[in-house]
Amino acid sequence: MKHATGVYITAVFFIVLFVVLFFWEEPFIYISEFITEQGAVSYVLFVLLLTVATVFAPVTVLPIIPAVAPIFGPFTTGILSIVGWTIGASIEIGRAHV
Q1: What whole-number distance in Å separates Cα of residue 3 and Cα of residue 68?
Q2: Within 13 Å of residue 90, how many CA atoms lie on the same side as its CB?
Q3: Over the stretch 37-67, which tens digit does the pLDDT of each residue have?
Q4: DSSP annotation of 12
């Protein structure tokens, strides 16, 4: 019974979060402008975030990718994602063979 209650509370939390974020766009505009102003630093941080997520399995960044795509552009986001995943996979393969 406790497990079912936890599932319901989690579901309600995410539904409320979705509705609030769907109708409240001001933070996204601020975040978009902030990331755009950073230039190449934001690209490097995004690649580092993807690299860390690839090396350390419990960390996931898949929800961030659709949020970053409108800011960087879909093509640039795709290229940066591939670069970050490749660097992370290279580090992981290197650690496995040492």
Answers
A1: 34
A2: 8
A3: 788 888 888 899 899 888 887 777 888 888 8
A4: H
Tokens of 50: 């993807």
Residue 4 corresponds to which amino acid?
A
**What is the Cα–Cα distance from 51 to 92, expressed in whole angstroms?**
10
CA 40 to each of CA 2, 89, 91: distance values in angstroms, whole numbers, following the listed order = 47, 23, 23
Tracing tokens 């995943």 back to the chain, one arrives at: 85
**How far is the C-alpha of 67 from the C-alpha of 17, rounded, in Å?**
15
| Residues 14, 86: Cα–Cα separation, whole Å | 32
**Whole-structure pTM over 0.85, yes or no?**
no
Residue 84 has a CB neighbour count (10 Å cut-off) of 22
> How many residues are given for the chain?
98
